[in-house]
Design goal:
There is one protein chain. Helix content is 37%, strand content 14%. The protein is built from 12 helices and 13 strands. The protein has helices at residues 11-19, 46-57, 70-81, 97-109, 125-132, 150-156, 178-188, 248-261, 267-277, 285-302, 329-338, 365-383; strands spanning 33-34, 92-95, 115-120, 136-141, 162-166, 194-198, 224-229, 242-245, 308-309, 318-323, 341-342, 344-345, 356-360. Strands 2-8-7-6-5-3-4 form a 7-stranded mixed β-sheet, with helices on both faces. It has a 4-stranded antiparallel β-sheet with strand order 9-10-13-12. A hairpin with an 8-residue loop joins strand 9 (308-309) and strand 10. Helix 2 (46-57) packs antiparallel against helix 9 (267-277), helix 3 runs parallel beside helix 9 and helix 10 runs parallel beside helix 12. The longest helix has 19 residues, at 365-383. The model has no long low-confidence stretch (mean pLDDT 93).
């Protein structure tokens, strides 16, 4: 038998393994409540499931167009602007979830040594993808409100190949408003820096906050790649359907990267996604109402929790909790798991995530209450400075 012990990993994989803190999360043990997963706990709406079943029975079981079903791309284009005047099917690439959309644009654009600005704390996939592409991640800390520190961005952006962010933001739950987005465009005026806007949580925005897509911001026009997924809005995480829209040259290059690494999308799943876009506007309202109630529950239950501090979530279904005890976030996360509640360590999301944990309230209210009770009890014992 051949001895493979002398084999070594590729340099970029070695670097990724060295610097990435993204865990391969396993299901919660019996008796443990998970507030760790950013996955809707609702079933996919029946009309979407029925569309997939119908597509299979009608024989849609073969390869699809590698850019995505034309009728799905056309519907996506129409959903973005209400008509086909600005976007067309040719501007859309359907991908294996938003993960593959992000991968495709990063691998298509970023090369060895290219610098990519990531305001952080941020979804850890961004930095991992840049590392795999051979680029250099330039983390820019947020301000105290967890919104962008525009002064620091102004210093970091010159010469950057790309800037990536989510809005509403994972893990902070912040909604970056029109003024922030407009200012980002102003800072980039006269440059060729590409903006990648991951807007997976665009329907999850709470009262008092207003969401504007980067596609609507005049100062960002022509340089924005919009990344979206059906996973969060329609509880379709397992279906793996996402898409990107943007400048023609970038979409074309991303399409080459996507089909090289993934091939064509699941045909029946694309028919399901088309059915999702055709649902009546109120079809997902019960899910949105439930997230709002859970968000309010988190704010109520943790508002005066000893040892914890946080800003009420403005969007998405996350709360980013800070603490003052001098304990590493990884240790706090491990100890909380022993106390019966799973969370994510803040350091997964960037250097300034130390001293924080992220919770998700995409879970049933009864389990959420149990998890918050355990979190509050632990915080009183371990995170309160006496």
């Amino acid at each position: 038998m051949t001895d493979l012990a002398h084999w070594t990993l590729a340099p970029r994989i070695r670097e990724l393994r060295r610097r990435s803190t993204r865990p391969a999360l396993a299901p919660a043990r019996p008796g443990v409540v998970s507030l760790a997963m950013g996955e809707p706990d609702f079933p996919t709406p029946p009309g979407i499931v029925e569309a997939a079943v119908r597509a299979l029975r009608d024989g849609h079981t073969h390869y699809a167009d590698q850019n995505g079903l034309p009728e799905l791309r056309e519907a996506i284009a129409e959903s973005l602007c209400g008509d086909t005047g600005r976007w067309s099917a040719a501007d859309v690439l359907v991908t294996h979830g938003a993960t593959a959309a992000l991968s495709a644009v990063v691998f298509a654009v970023v090369g060895p040594g290219d610098r990519v600005v990531v305001p952080e704390p941020a979804y850890s996939l961004y930095a991992d993808l840049v590392t795999l592409a051979g680029g250099v991640v330039d983390f820019v800390p947020l301000d105290e409100s967890l919104h962008w520190d525009l002064g620091r961005l102004a210093e970091a952006l010159p010469g950057a190949k790309m800037v990536i962010f989510s809005n509403p933001a994972n893990p902070t739950g912040v909604v970056h408003g029109e003024q922030e987005l407009t200012e980002l465009g102003r800072l980039l005026d006269g440059t060729d820096t590409l903006v990648v806007a991951d807007e997976a949580y665009h329907r999850l925005v709470y009262p008092g906050y207003t969401f504007r897509s980067a596609l609507e911001i005049e100062s960002l026009r022509g340089r924005t790649v919009y990344v979206q997924t059906f996973s969060k809005t329609y509880a379709m995480t397992g279906w793996r359907v996402g898409f990107l829209v943007g400048p023609a040259q970038v979409v074309s290059a991303a399409a080459h990267a996507h089909r090289s690494g993934n091939g064509s999308m699941n045909t029946a799943a694309q028919h399901a996604a088309l059915a999702a876009l055709r649902l009546p506007p109120d079809a997902i309202q019960p899910m949105l109402d439930a997230y709002r109630a859970r968000r309010d529950l988190v704010v109520k239950e943790l508002a005066e929790a000893p040892g914890l501090r946080f800003s009420p979530p403005e969007g998405a279904f996350y709360a980013f909790l800070g603490y003052d005890a001098e304990l590493p976030a990884a240790q706090v996360t491990a100890e909380l798991a022993e106390h019966g509640v799973m969370v994510r360590a803040g350091t997964e999301y960037g250097p300034t995530g130390e001293g924080h944990v992220r919770i998700s309230f995409a879970t049933a209210e009864a389990e959420l209450l149990t998890g918050l009770d355990r979190l509050r009890a632990y915080a009183g014992e371990r995170l309160q400075i006496r």
